[in-house]
Specification:
With 188 residues, the chain is mostly beta strands. The chain has one domain: sav2460 like domains (Lipoxygenase-1). The protein has 2 helices and 11 strands, in the order βββββββαββββα. The strands form 2 sheets. It has a 6-stranded antiparallel sheet with strand order 1-11-10-7-3-4. It has a 5-stranded antiparallel sheet with strand order 5-6-2-8-9, with no helix packed on it. The radius of gyration is 16 Å and the shape is globular. 36% of the residues are buried.
């Protein structure tokens, strides 16, 4: 599979009308160093027409495994070999019509190891697979300035012509969760 470009989009359901849902996997490697290791945390933000989170409960992350809207949840596949650091399942048929975008963000948790950046985070990616694990698209997402980025918007699923599509983004936030919160209307 060739490299997927930043800003590139892929129509998921237009090319496969029977595709009922996907698994979105995110992963990375943290380079060991002399100081504290970065602790990347993945989250999905469920957005409405204005591109902002529908409510503060429209997040999926390690401490909130499902959202106020059905159809989006952290994957809890126990006992299976997982190549991704985190996986989020999306059931297209269960996602309410008012959800127009699902943004996938990873941030460096400042509460676990102290303030950190993506400077020691390498090989970051987002991938979208069919429920059977067949990969549809993978985007390797290095932030533009890894030494200063504290959060990265890896990519998004969005409604497109009555179906769903994926867009690769890779946009870094130097102000971490504060920048993510400002963009998506969240108090984080």
């Amino acid at each position: 599979m060739s490299a997927f470009p930043e800003g590139g989009t892929l129509a998921l359901t237009a090319g496969d009308p029977g595709l009922a849902g996907v698994m979105v996997g995110m992963g990375w490697t943290v380079e060991p160093g002399a100081g504290p290791l970065a602790e990347p945390v993945a989250l999905a933000i469920v957005c409405g027409e204005d591109g902002r989170a529908l409510t503060p409960e429209h997040l999926v992350f390690f401490n909130q495994l499902t959202t106020a809207s059905p159809g989006i949840a952290f994957s809890l596949a126990e006992g299976t070999k997982r190549s991704d650091a985190e996986q989020i399942d999306v059931d297209f048929g269960a996602v309410p019509e008012d959800v127009t975008r699902i943004a996938f963000v990873t941030y460096v948790d400042p509460e676990v190891r102290g303030p950190g950046t993506f400077g020691t985070v390498h090989d970051a990616y987002i991938r979208v697979t069919r429920p059977d694990g067949t990969e549809l698209v993978r985007f390797d997402t290095p932030p533009a300035k890894p030494g200063t980025a504290k959060a990265v918007l890896f990519g998004e699923l969005f409604r497109d012509a009555g179906g769903w599509a994926f867009r690769a983004l890779g946009r870094g936030y130097e102000n971490g969760l504060a920048g993510v919160g400002a963009e998506f209307g969240l108090d984080v």
